[in-house]
Amino acid sequence: METLRHVVLLVHLIGFAVLFGSWAVQAFGGQKQFGKIMEYGLLIAGVAGLALAAPWGLPEGAEPNYMKIGTKLVILVAIGALVGSGLSRQKRGASVAPAVFWLVGILTVTNAAIALLWR
């Protein structure tokens, strides 16, 4: 079970990498727009994160940190709302507000930082 949990963790990290990587490409060399690939990264990270939140494959006596899981889920939903609204604006021909674009990157890094630093 522990090996399966590590595989799900790897998939979760790949989802984060797809989301943040596609955002970073746009932020530092693109047109500061949202792409469909960001939605896929968000979906991969979200589904794998929910699978990791289940209390299976944990070492004996370990309890999941539900406050951390809830915080990360709220941030994930906020990122999804921002990306979804940005893609919707782009479909109508409008541009994404710079604050919304940069907030997605900040929230994505914040979510990774919470995963790494919150024990």
Could you walk me through the main structural features you see in this protein, from its secondary elements to its overall organization?
By secondary structure, the protein is mainly α. It has one domain. Helices cover 77% and strands 0% of the residues. It is built from four helices and no strands. The chain has helices at residues 2-29, 36-53, 66-91, 98-117. Helix 1 runs antiparallel to helix 2 (36-53) and helix 3 (66-91) runs antiparallel to helix 4 (98-117).
Summarize it.
With 119 residues, the chain is mainly alpha-helical.
Characteristics of this structure?
119 residues; Fe-S protein; elongated; mainly alpha; 77% helix; transmembrane helix; transmembrane; 4 helices; membrane
Element order, helices and strands? HHHH
Strand count, sense and barrel status of the largest sheet are:
none
- Helical/strand content category: mainly alpha
Measured by DSSP, the beta-strand proportion falls in under 5%
Helix content: over 70%
Shape: elongated
Query: What is the number of independent domains?
Result: 1
**Number of H/I helices:** 4
Averaged pLDDT: 93
Please mark out the parts with pLDDT under 50 across 5 or more consecutive residues, or reply none: none
Using only C-alpha atoms, the radius of gyration works out to 15 Å
Termini separation comes to 22 Å
Question: How many strand segments?
Answer: 0
